[in-house]
Structure formats: C-alpha cells, structure tokens
C-alpha cells in the first residue's frame, strides 16, 4: 500500500519477529531499536511522524527521542483497554507535538502535562477518505468479498484481535462471538486477527469451528483500505474489538457491537453497543438482534474530513529552532459516557412512593408498568416518623431491586396536597395527612439513596399514569378525574402536564357546582368533592343510618362497624331509593364539573379513575348529553383500566425523564 501511494522509500527494515506471543512482541521492539539508530543517522529527519499505539511505533518514538529528533504523534490522548493504552501514552510522553482526533483526547493530553500550544485538534486523518467514500460503487466490492447473492445491510463484518493483557479471556470471547455469529445465521466477513500475542490461538479457534469452510463465512487476512471502508459502510452490523469499529465506522452510522475491554474508554457514537463480558453466546446474540440492520445518525466525533490540511498547516508552523524541552500544565479530564449491554438486559425501573391518608406504599415499577415488588406500611402521624419510614422503605426496596435485576433510575413520589414539583416540596396538604406542609421531600431521599427524586400531586400522577400506561397513551389533550376519599385530577394539554402558575391547576374536586351546596373540607360550599367524594358519601350514609333509612333487606351493619360509602352503594344496588338518589346527585355534581372542564379545556378524552368511577360514569355521560354544548359532547368518557394509578404515576415521573434510548 505504501508503494502504491508512490512514496520515495529510503530504507526497508524487517523488525517483526514471528511467534505471536509476548516474547515475540518484546523481541520485535528490541530488534527495531537495534536497527533504527543507523537509519536515523543517515536520514537526519527534522521531524518524525509517529502514528497510533502499536508496539512497533513505540520503538520509533524511543529511538527518535533519544536521538533528539522532534516527534509529531498522531492520535494521542485517546483511551482504550489494552497494552495499547500504555504504549500510546508512553509515545505521548516522548513526543514534542501532538495531533489528536477528539475534544476529549485533547483534554487528556493537556491533563497529561502536554503543552497546549503544541497540540492540534485536527480530527482523524482516515475520516478525510471515509466521508467521501460511501457513495462509490460498493455493490461490486460486496460481491467480491461476500458473494453474488449478498445485499447491502444484510451481512456482518467481524474483526477481533487478542487482548495482550488478558489473552485467555479474549480467546474465550472470540469463541463465543463465533458461536453467536453461527447461530445468527447471516453472511459474515471475518478478518484474521493481528499479530499480537494470542493471535495464533484465535486462528486455531477459527479453524476448530470450521469458519474458513462454513457457507455463511468468508475468512480473509487483508482487505484493501478503500474496499474495507465500503464494506463496513454498507454492512448490517460490525462486531469485534477493533478500534475501527468505535472510530471510523461511526462516520457511516453502521451499527457496531464492541466486545470485551480492548476499546474500553474510547469515545463512541450512539451506533456502538458494548458487550464487556459474556459467559455464553446469549448476550452477544441478543446484542446482534438489537443492532443488526439498524441505521444510526452519522457521527463526526472523530473528524469532519479536513484533518490532513490542518496537519500540513501545523507541520509548516513548527519552529525548528525552538527548544525541545517540554512545558507542563494540569487541567481536568472529561469522562466519556457509553452504552452497555448489561444495562439494557437489566430491567430499567423506578422506585414509586404513594403517600396516602392511611397507607404508605413503595414499589419497584418496570418500564412496562409492571409492579415488580410492593411494600406497604401504615402512614405515620408525625413528620419525623413519616420521613424516616419513607427513607427506610426506599432503601429496602433499592436493595431488593439488585436481587431482582432491576436498575433503579430514580424515585417518584405521589402525595396528597399542593406540590412544587420543581423543588420537590409539599407546599401544604389536605387534612388527611397531618404535619405535611412546607416539606422538602426531595433532599432527604436523594441524599440517602444517591438517586434523582421527583415529587408531584397524586391527581397529577394519576394523569401521568394514564399518559404512559393507560387510556391517555398517545392522546394530545385529556383530563383524569380521581374519585376516592377526595376528588382530584390532572390535565394533559398538548401531551404535557399542566401545573399552573402556583401549582394549583387541576384541583378539579374544588370546582363549584352549587352556590348553596354542602360544606367541603376546603372550607367552601358546593364543591364536587362535597358531593361525590368517599367522605361525602360516608356523611350521607351515616345520616340515613341514623334515621334508620339505610338498611334494606339483605343488608346488616354490625354494631362496631363504621358506616361508609360502601354501605350506601350496597343499599342503592339492593333497591334503596334514597341511597340511589344520593349516588345520582353525586354523579350529577361530578358530571356538571366535567361539563365545566369540557367548556374550559375542550379535551378529547375524560378518564374517570378511582374506586367510585364505575358507579358514576353512566350519570356523568347523561349530564354531558343534557348540559354540554353540542361541540363538546363528542368527548369520550371512560373508566380507567389501571389497577394502581398512584404508583404507576409516581413511576412515570421517573421513567419519562430519565430514559433516553428504549429497546
């Protein structure tokens, strides 16, 4: 390839000692160090350009440094997971000038004490060819290397090298990779490994599995670079541990599965999925199913196609009279973030907390809305005991999540009262939860669990639960009304939850439907809650019972038993006309509230949630037909099908805001 590019070759050195083990690598470096001084004395170069992180490059840099020859190192500052890391950084310390490919690599060089004035952020030189290659005639190249019947995006390119710091493990990973590729049953171009220690054993694995003669595989030792670019650009997937997979292939958006630790720490685009370790082929096979055939956005992390002109300009700017002595500085290192198959295989989950008037519940809720584990305790009456119990239950659930293979992304809390969700503070609560005003819920729980915490009103959480898991999924504008001990709700407008200027939006239970109605817990009169809540129905049931007008044939109330809304509903079902009238009045009040909502918000859907919803829906629909404007009567009114909207809503606070990619 060097000859084809018409270089004027001054000297040829044969320095690679065959053997493909650790000793052969050391001997190759030693042989190069013996031969290079004579060559460099004859050439007398002004600058030695050293590329990358291979052991033969270390011999070049060592010789040039000891002979006071300026060194320009290309692609320093990057991070990977093998002996190459140490070699690359050793060359950095020997080099006088640096050309790096990414912003993070530049920061790493600076943090390694290199002079910022001698560092050029140019991008990767190979990208100069890559970004102009994709539109070339690739069909012919695919046919040459993979066969006449293979189509673009329907084959795999596999390139895996030994990891010299853990040869035994890398051979095991290679064997599992080949097993997974055989099971996946797609045409695959397999390139032989490089000559590092362990490569002979990897070749033996290939031959033991019959890869060179398998109908689905094409095993080759070398592909010209121009053709290799086209092959990976149009592959359905690339798999292995070559730096090419995490660097160059990103230019095309080709899916990549990076195996093992050889490239650990390298910056990657979103096209790269990591499989750090595996005991069987299953994890690799799942990664193939996830990645094969996808098309990701093209990544320019490593370059924009203009590296070579920048490098030439940098070379021309070097002052050969400048002293060789280095200067040093110590800036911070910026970490890179990558994606890992182990995280995907875990169940991404949230800790959901429901603070009710009676019970305190904590659950592990999966991304699909499955309640994996639930813990219930009585809600303490004092602030201190309540906070202590919440933290204790959350810690217990988080520990249990590890055993259940659930990855907790954060904590969501549903509570009664008015909540400032931005600060995670309960501003003030209903009379059902004592000592629950001006309470910072976020800080103590976040500090204890080291997880992000979201807090919102229970009615809003019910609406969020419907948006993510229930009837509201995909609906742009809808309202949820929660019928329980009190009446609450939440409003979704243009797919977003409405909180209001003082976090008081969707207090739907306090819509006034009568100026002279019964007194509400809020202090007002005629609110929906004063008619249709569980407390209101209990009040009316007690009145009937005190007047001996509640019980009908088939009903009994024990002496010590508390009369409740349940008895009123039972009496109405058994034909008690007065009980039925009370339920109808409650339903009418709720219906009038819904009509007001329709005329204010004009949603396309109203969801009735909670234990009383099924008893009210018929009356609510009748009221809409008689009282709503014709243009608002087309609204759908349904009963929620969610078993536990409070916990699911608390979980959705977390799941909606912490996940980025969904599989």
Task: Describe the secondary-structure layout.
Layout: H1 22-43, E1 47-51, H2 55-66, E2 70-74, H3 83-94, E3 97-100, H4 103-111, E4 119-121, H5 127-130, H6 139-146, E5 155-159, H7 167-184, E6 187-191, H8 199-208, E7 217-220, H9 225-233, E8 237-240, H10 243-246, E9 256-259, E10 272-275, H11 282-291, H12 307-317, H13 341-345, E11 347-355, E12 359-366, E13 371-378, H14 383-403, E14 406-415, E15 418-420, E16 425-428, E17 439-440, H15 442-449, E18 453-457, H16 458-469, E19 478-483, E20 487-493, E21 496-497, H17 528-532, H18 534-546, H19 565-573, H20 577-601, E22 605-609, H21 613-627, E23 636-639, H22 645-658
Helix pairs in contact: 1-2, 2-3, 7-8, 7-11, 14-15, 16-22, 18-19, 18-20, 19-20, 20-21
Give a summary of the structure in a few sentences:
The chain is of the alpha/beta class and 663 residues long.
What would you note in describing this structure?
- By secondary structure, the chain is an alpha/beta fold.
- It folds into four domains: 2-123 and 311-317, Rossmann fold (3-Layer(aba) Sandwich), CATH 3.40.50.2000; 128-291, Glycogen Phosphorylase B (Rossmann fold), CATH 3.40.50.2000; 344-469, Nucleotidyltransferase, domain 5, CATH 3.30.420.40; 471-641, 2-Layer Sandwich (Nucleotidyltransferase, domain 5), CATH 3.30.420.
- 39% of the residues lie in helices and 17% in strands.
- The chain is built from 22 helices and 23 strands.
- The strands form five sheets. A six-stranded parallel beta sheet has the order 7-6-5-8-9-10, with helices on one face.
- β12 and β13 form a beta hairpin.
- α1 packs parallel to α2 (55-66) and α2 (55-66) runs parallel beside α3.
- It is elongated, with a radius of gyration of 35 Å.
- It starts with 21 loop residues before the first helix and ends in a 5-residue tail after the last helix.
- The model has no long low-confidence stretch (mean pLDDT 89).
């Amino acid at each position: 390839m060097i000859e084809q590019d018409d270089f004027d070759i001054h000297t040829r050195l044969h320095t690679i000692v065959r053997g493909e083990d650790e000793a052969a690598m050391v001997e190759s470096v030693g042989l190069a160090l013996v031969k290079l001084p004579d060559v460099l004395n004859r050439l007398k170069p002004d600058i030695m350009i050293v590329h990358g992180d291979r052991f033969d490059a270390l011999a070049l840099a060592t010789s040039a440094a000891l002979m006071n020859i300026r060194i320009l190192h290309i692609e320093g500052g990057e991070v990977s997971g093998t002996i190459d890391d140490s070699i690359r950084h050793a060359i950095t310390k020997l080099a006088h000038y640096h050309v790096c490919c990414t912003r993070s690599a530049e920061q790493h060089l600076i943090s390694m004490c290199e002079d910022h004035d001698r560092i050029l952020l140019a991008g990767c030189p190979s990208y100069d060819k890559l970004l102009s290659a994709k539109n070339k005639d690739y069909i012919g190249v695919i046919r040459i290397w993979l066969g006449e019947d293979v189509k673009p995006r329907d084959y795999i390119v596999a390139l895996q090298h030994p990891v010299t710091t853990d040869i035994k493990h890398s051979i095991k990973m290679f064997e599992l990779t080949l097993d997974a590729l055989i099971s996946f049953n797609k045409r695959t171009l397999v390139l032989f490994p490089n000559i590092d220690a362990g490569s002979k054993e990897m070749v033996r694995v290939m031959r033991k599995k019959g890869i060179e003669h398998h109908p689905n595989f094409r095993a080759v030792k070398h592909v010209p670079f121009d053709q290799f670019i086209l092959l990976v650009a149009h592959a359905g997937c690339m798999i292995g541990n070559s730096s090419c997979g995490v660097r160059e292939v990103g230019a095309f958006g080709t899916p990549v599965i990076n195996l093992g630790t050889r490239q650990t720490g390298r910056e990657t685009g979103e096209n790269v999925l990591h499989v750090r370790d595996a005991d069987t082929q299953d994890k690799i096979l799942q990664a193939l199913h996830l990645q094969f055939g996808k098309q990701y956005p093209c990544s320019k992390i490593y370059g924009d196609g203009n590296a070579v002109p920048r490098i030439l300009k940098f070379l021309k700017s070097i002052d050969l009279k400048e002293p060789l002595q280095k200067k040093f500085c110590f800036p911070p290192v910026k970490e890179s973030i990558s994606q890992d198959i182990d995280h995907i295989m875990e169940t991404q989950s949230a800790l959901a907390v429901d603070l009710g008037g009676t019970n305190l519940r904590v659950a592990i809720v999966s991304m699909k809305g499955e309640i994996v584990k639930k813990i219930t305790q009585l809600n303490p009456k004092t602030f201190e005991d309540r906070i202590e119990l919440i933290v204790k239950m959350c810690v217990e659930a988080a520990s249990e999540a590890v055993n259940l293979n659930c990855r907790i992304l954060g904590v969501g809390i549903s509570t009664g009262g008015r909540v400032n969700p931005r600060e995670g503070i309960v501003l003030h609560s209903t009379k059902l939860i004592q000592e629950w005003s001006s309470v910072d819920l976020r800080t103590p729980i976040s500090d204890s669990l080291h997880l992000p915490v979201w807090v919102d009103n229970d009615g809003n959480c019910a609406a969020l639960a419907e948006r993510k898991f229930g009837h509201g999924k995909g609906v742009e504008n809808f309202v949820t009304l929660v019928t329980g001990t009190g009446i609450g709700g939440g409003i979704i407008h243009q797919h977003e939850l409405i909180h209001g200027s003082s976090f008081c939006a969707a207090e739907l239970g306090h819509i006034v439907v009568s100026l002279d109605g019964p007194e509400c817990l809020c202090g007002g009169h005629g609110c929906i809650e004063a008619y249709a809540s569980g407390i209101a129905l209990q009040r009316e049931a007690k009145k009937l019972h005190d007047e001996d007008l509640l019980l009908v044939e088939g009903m009994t109330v024990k002496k010590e038993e508390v009369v409740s809304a349940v008895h009123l509903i039972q009496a109405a079902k058994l034909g008690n006309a007065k009980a039925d009238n009370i339920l109808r009045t409650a339903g009418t009040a709720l219906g009038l509230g819904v009509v007001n909502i329709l005329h204010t918000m004009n949603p396309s859907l109203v969801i009735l949630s909670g234990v009383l919803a099924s008893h009210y829906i018929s009356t609510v629909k009748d009221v809409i037909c008689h009282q709503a404007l014709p243009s608002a009567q087309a609204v759908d009114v349904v009963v929620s099908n969610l078993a536990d909207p409070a916990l699911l809503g608390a979980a959705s606070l977390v799941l909606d805001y912490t996940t980025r990619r969904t599989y």
